[in-house]
């Protein structure tokens, strides 16, 4: 009975009190960061400072291949190994699309 009571106490402390306190402190001290560092344009949320974005122009750095199109509401990834032929195929396809859009440099 003592073990059950102690378990319930720790469930309440670790599962309710601590997360609520940490969230409350974060909202007070860092409200922008606690809410996802959202970027607004004309009053509409268009992205986040910390989540990868899809860029169509070659003037931007292109991050790693995303299986969810950098959509933060989707969860998970394919977790393909660097040696996986499917990942190589996807990466090669993206590289080809990016290089065909580029204009040659006049060197």
Integer-rounded radius of gyration: 22 Å
| Oligomeric state of the chains present here | single chain
Query: How many domains in all?
Result: 1
CA-to-CA gap between the ends? 80 Å
Number of strands: 2
Strand content: 5-15%
The helix content, as a percent range, equals 40-55%
SSE string, helices as H and strands as E: HHEEH
Query: What is the overall number of helices?
Result: 3
Q: How would you state the average pLDDT, rounded?
A: 78
Instruction: Give the uncertain stretches in residue-range form.
Output: none
Gross geometry: flat
Q: SS-based structural class? A: mainly alpha
- Biggest sheet: strands, sense, closure? 2 strands, antiparallel
Strand order of the largest sheet: 1-2
GO cellular component, one term: membrane
Protein name: Potassium-transporting ATPase subunit C
Keywords: ATP-binding, Cell membrane, Ion transport, Membrane, Nucleotide-binding, Potassium, Potassium transport, Transmembrane, Transmembrane helix, Transport
InterPro entries: KdpC (IPR003820)
Describe this protein with a few key phrases:
107 residues; two-stranded antiparallel ribbon; potassium transport; flat; cell membrane; mainly alpha; 2 strands; nucleotide-binding
């Amino acid at each position: 009975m003592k073990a059950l009571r102690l378990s319930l106490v720790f469930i309440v402390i670790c599962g309710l009190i601590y997360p609520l306190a940490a969230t409350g402190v974060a909202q007070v001290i860092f409200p922008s960061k606690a809410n996802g560092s959202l970027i607004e344009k004309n009053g509409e949320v268009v992205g986040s400072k910390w989540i990868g974005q899809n860029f169509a122009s070659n003037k931007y750095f292109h991050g790693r291949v995303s299986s969810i199109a950098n959509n933060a509401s989707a969860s998970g990834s394919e977790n393909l190994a660097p040696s996986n032929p499917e990942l190589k195929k996807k990466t090669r396809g993206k590289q080809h699309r990016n290089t065909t859009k580029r204009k040659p440099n006049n060197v």
